[in-house]
Amino acid sequence: MQLPRLLTSLLFLSPLVVCHAVTSPDKKEVYTAGGGKCKNPLVRREWRLLPDQEKKNYIDAVKCLQTLPALTSNVVPGAITRFDDFQSIHIRLAEIIHNVGLFHHWHRYFVWFYEKALREECGYNGAQPYWDWTLDSASESAFLNSPIWCPTTGFGGNGPYINESGNPFLSIPGRTGGGCVPDGPFSNYTLHLGPRGSIAKNPQCLRRDFAPFISPLRLTKELVRLPHCEKAFDWYDFKAQAGAREAGFFLHESSFHSAPHIAVGGEAGQMGDIYASPGDPIFYLHHAGVDREWWKWQNVDPETRLKDARGPSIRFDFPFGNNFRGGNITLEHEIGLLELAPVVPLRKVMDTEGDLLCYSYAKEKAVYDPTTEKWVAEELSAEEEDWEACKN
Length: 392
Ligand SMILES: [Cu+2]
Known about the structure:
Keywords: Copper, Metal-binding, Signal
Helix content: 25-40%
Structural class: mainly alpha
CATH architecture: Orthogonal Bundle
Number of strands: 6
Protein name: Tyrosinase copper-binding domain-containing protein
Bound molecules: copper (II) ion
Signal peptide: 1-21
GO molecular function: metal ion binding; oxidoreductase activity
CATH class: Mainly Alpha
Pfam families: Tyrosinase
């Protein structure tokens, strides 16, 4: 369904992102993934809480992946770098990993492999950071001024406004960009794949097409909490993913997976492309954020929830319980990353601290201190943890 295009095309928003230094102490972790039960998990933290040196280390490692040669170019000649490898895998599997019950499992495995490549191939010694979108949801300007977009200690910002996005599949009223990202560490990187399912070599820039109104409308703490109030995984998963069958902007009110894709990618940006979205390095922070929500949900009742895998095995085969085409996924359902990784039953990725994965998420919250104009880490109180997890 087409929505009327708003007059925001006239209001080219040019956010001035202020990048404040963060100086919280480095946390030292030892990586012990594989070979027995996880002992010293890597701890993933919110981007803005990383000390600047750690932010730089992460960005440098991503840039390193963007220079290493692809491993899949014999299958996908358009894939030139290791960074492209990951985008290529997502493009080729996109139609079987979204709007299905294994969405969360597959993306957990995918982001973990990316983190592993950064560490093992690019000398990165930290954990995959995540993006907590709720921190930027107070207003449109909060979204536009997020430290995530900082050109020096973040991922660069929006593209300049272009009138025609050339995307016949999405109509996002209130989009504000669409051109090549002009600043930040990735403005010079040439992507090679997409749009959508295309894996032919197609050199292109990183594009963003911010739709900032989506942030306060879809990504507040109250809305992101809604799926957490579901006790069964299939409903949690459905609400988090969106399940929106039709293209366009009609996301479920709690779809914290889809909303940031559209808020960042709009019509023209890679992030809004369900196939090619990993072309934007912010994809991995976004999906770590999605993974963290699932991790929080699992940890409310680990006994039950670390074994709860349900939801359709065939795309859009809703409603649950009586999926008429393919039935539910099970713990034995297999997930893989084509040439990049072994196929594993999805029970292997249920526990982030199991015998394959070995990471967790920091139990802290980011608080903005207006006097120092800095984000600082504070401990999460038990009540706050309960509230976020929807235990009451
Ligand atoms: Cu995806």
